[in-house]
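PROTOCOL LOG
Step 1. Enter all chains and additional molecules of the complex.
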Amino acid sequence: MELFDLFFYIFASVIVISGAVTVLNKNLIYAAFALLILLSSVAAMFFILGAEFLAMVQILIYVGGVLILIVFGIMLTGQVKSVPMRENFVYLLIAAVFTGLLCGLLVTGITARPDMTLTADIASTPIKMLGNLLIGKYYLIFGMLGVLLLVILIAAAGMARNNKE
Amino acid sequence: MVGLNHFLILTSILFSLGLFGVVTRKNAITVLMGLELILNAASLNFVAITRFTDVAASGQVISLFIIVLAASEAAIALAIVLNLYKNFNNVNVDEINSLKE
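Step 2. Run joint prediction.
Step 3. Record the structure below.
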């Protein structure tokens, strides 16, 4: 349990700091690398919560796929050092106030309810259980996601194609 | 003693950071990064709630679906951004205000 707390605090601080860097950094490549650290730390969080399969999927798909796509997007559009924020300071202030307010509201709502702690040590979720759920209870969503991925594949290829002769 | 509330607070902070990024950044790709933050907050929430309550592994399956959706969203969004860059020569969401040149 002690180790669980320690890892939670380490990865939580890494997540918050790298999230802030992702959102606030002027250089887009630095922001992308902060996003890399953030996604890996979320994978580590999955790991300490006993969801090893999900942690692996997070690393494979997010770090290996989505992040590479984003870096390609940054490089292909040549926006590495663009003007990052809205220039108007008032917009920034309003956005900061309202997102801070939202965050405070969420936190007060969460702390108002009784905390739940773990009764037993964390055991890893058996992959067999995940597979049974995927093919059993959530089969409709699973199948629809398959169709969605096919549509996305065709649409992305069609859209990214250079059709100007 | 770390409980469920710690995870919920962490994900609210992550969600707020992502929302701040979405509304303040001008570059379309950074808006996308903010969206990734929000989606990650949601999936971390699902996994944490699965662990601290006894709902089998349903939250983990939903989290898996979120990851798949995020990947397809990123693919489509990048295709759109590349097309925008081809047509407008920038990806500034403030200046892109027509569907066709």
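Step 4. Note key features.
Residues 126-165 of chain A form one domain.
The two ends of chain A are 63 Å apart (CA to CA).
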